[in-house]
Amino acid sequence: MKRPIMLSTGIAALAGLLMVDALPAQASPRAFVTNERDHTMSVVDMNTLKVIDTIKTGRRPRGIIASPDGKLIYVCASDDNRVEVYDAATLKLVKTLRSGPDPELFVLHPSGNPLYIANEDDNMVTVVNVENNDLVAEIPVGVEPEGMGISPDGKYMVNTSETTNMAHVVDTSNNEIIENILVDSRPRIAQFTEDGKQLWVSSEVGGTVAVIDPATWKIIKKISFKIPGVTDDAIQPVGVRVTKDGSKAFIALGPANRVAVVNAKTLEVEKYLLVGQRVWQLGFTPDEKFLLSTNGNSNDISVIDVANEKVTKSVTVGRLPWGVVVVP
Amino acid sequence: MRWMASAAVAALIAAGIAMLAPLPARAQETGPATPSVASPPLTAKPAAAIAPAQTFHIGVVRQLPEPPPWIAPLQMPPDDLGIAGAELGIRDNLTSGRFLKLDYKLSTEIVPTDGDPLPVVQKLVEAGNGFILLDVPADQLLKIADAYKGQDVVFINVGATDDRLRQQDCRANVFHIAPSRAMLTDALAQFLVTKRWRNWFLMVGRTDGDKLYAEAVRRSAKKFGAKIVAEKEWDYGPDARATAQSEVPRGTQVGEYDLLIVADELGEFGDILPYNTWLSRPIAGTQGLMPLSWHPTMENWGASQLQSRFFKQSKRLMLPLDFQMWQGVFAVGSASLKTRDSAPAKVKAQLLSPDYDLPVFKGVAASFRDWDHQLRQPILLTHATNTVTLSPQAGFLHQTSPLDTLGFDRPESACKLQ
């Protein structure tokens, strides 16, 4: 294969990797990044790693997820108190959904419906039917609900409340809270592993990630982080992603400007990857070859090579990039 | 109730959809038509339905301070100053505590300026309040603390900034949420030194509090390498509004300086200094750029959520004393989630445990210093319409916590807790 002379070696290698992987013709995975301060969403072509479009969204877009088929992009427009649904192919706004006040993060049932939304201002999780915008339930939770996770079988939804410092486990069959797990300060993200055997909860101010066993809802281990030259106060775990095979976890450490690589079997931290400033959320490409991090204060995303555990590139997006999702 | 859905529909949506996706539109159309008015809401059970396992009784005693000779229209203190913060703290505690069957009750007492808060405290303690928030003058606070020495009551100072309460007059049964004057002026000094505005002109008011504030300013100057190049006592009377334009320029001719620091805790003259000084110099201290625990313009790190909860509740902006009372009540609440036991001694031990932290919406967790029970937390530097920065400033290093660069660090502590 001839090397394109205009590209740097790094990009060429990356582009080469993606090409060799024989993706279906013209199906170039795209990353969608919400820019909280710009009220926009950047669309990044994952083959070229270029921003191909910037879409105007509602005010203060934060949480962003995709439908299971990758065809729809859901965005929390926090200051407009609504969820916006975009067509991932045409990039057009398809519809808006009710969200309850100040939606920040949300999670879709694995089937694609309903949508569980954390209402940060209202101590509530709002459950919405994405087909017809019906309000299914309002679940009272702790103070400042934030992180939202759902078990792969859809049986349990977990919400974290930032000021109550709990992970609330909700039985999705009746929307009742069945368990409250105290974790360290300012829990941000709840993420189940693909096999449903672990729940990871990051605590931003506490500086730890609790790994919880959903069989007992007890904490198996609290992972903490030490980085030479970085004060403990600056280590603020937020975004969490675990590979589908359950081998590696990546933890975004906020103002520490690093993503921790954790061996998900031993739960030991193995490495810290330097990324942009105030790294916030993470998102894998569908093939999990790459992980993207949103870096709020440097207004870019970092591209992490998952297998080699290396940061390969950063791409400038809008101001205060918050969340990211990649669709095929 | 803004919405109503039948149990059947909810169950279908929440659990059954996995099999049905994509959802046939018809199922949705027929679903809500089923009779549903009588079915219970599908939310979690209300807290009231559960008998609390433990109730935390928190009392608040606020002695009204001496009113200043005049009050600028924008500075008018609201009637429920502070108390509204305590009330929000109770709400937030209830929101968190109900998951563990914990309940919280607030009893509030206001004491007039010339009144004695001790009998009011006695009444609250007799009524079973094991935690008492105090916003009273330092002398009264000491009298109260000493009256309950060795008893199972925890006092939380949410108002008095006196340094001596953290130093030679510290008490084992008192925690300090209110920042000390030393913390406030250290926070300011760090910023001014960072800006290289090192030469200060200090203008001191007539009250005892002003003199103590000035004392703290002098201490901070020494600690961080600034210099007080001129110092004056304000002697233009309690209300110089009408004559400020002629008197202040004359009174501020003290030679060259970088910044005027004003010590005027009651707000008698500090606000008339800006733009009336002889030289065009900024003003900081009790007015101008102010070190504060909180301000309505604070919005980062989740602060806007607290501001918005407060506004929803009280239909006004959240002021420092509101925040300090919220912190006091929430400190008990956050400890209670770990103790699940309302015995004050247990809560006290939790407040002092190394893994205790209090959310303060300032980017880092706050906690209590074990040597003087002072809450260590970042301090805002704000003017009327903007929070400029938070101290500690970057670069002021500390071997354990940068927050301990503000106020009395362990080696400087003169406190012997008893």
Automatic annotation (TrEMBL), chain A:
Supply the SUPFAM superfamilies for this chain: Nitrous oxide reductase, N-terminal domain
> Quick check: keyword Signal in the entry?
yes
Which stretch is the leader sequence?
A: 1-27
Q: Which Pfam families match?
A: Lactonase
User: Looking at the record's lineage, which domain of life comes first?
Assistant: Bacteria
Going by the UniProt record, its keywords in alphabetical order are: Signal
InterPro entries per record? Host-pathogen_enzymatic-act, Lactonase_7-beta_prop, N2O_reductase_N, PQQ_b_propeller, WD40/YVTN_repeat-like_dom_sf, YVTN_b-propeller_repeat
Q: What is this protein called?
A: PQQ-dependent catabolism-associated beta-propeller protein
TrEMBL record, chain B:
Q: Does the keyword Signal apply?
A: yes
Q: Report the family membership.
A: Belongs to the leucine-binding protein family.
**UniProt name for this protein:** ABC transporter substrate-binding protein
Q: Which UniProt keywords apply?
A: Amino-acid transport, Signal, Transport
Every copy of the Leucine-binding protein domain together lies at 120-234
Q: Which residues form the signal peptide?
A: 1-27
Name the species this protein comes from: Ancylobacter koreensis
The record's section on InterPro entries has: ABC_transptr_sub-bd_PQQ, BCAA_transport, Leu-bd, Peripla_BP_I
Note whether Thylakoid occurs among the keywords. Answer: no
Q: What parts of the sequence cross the membrane?
A: none
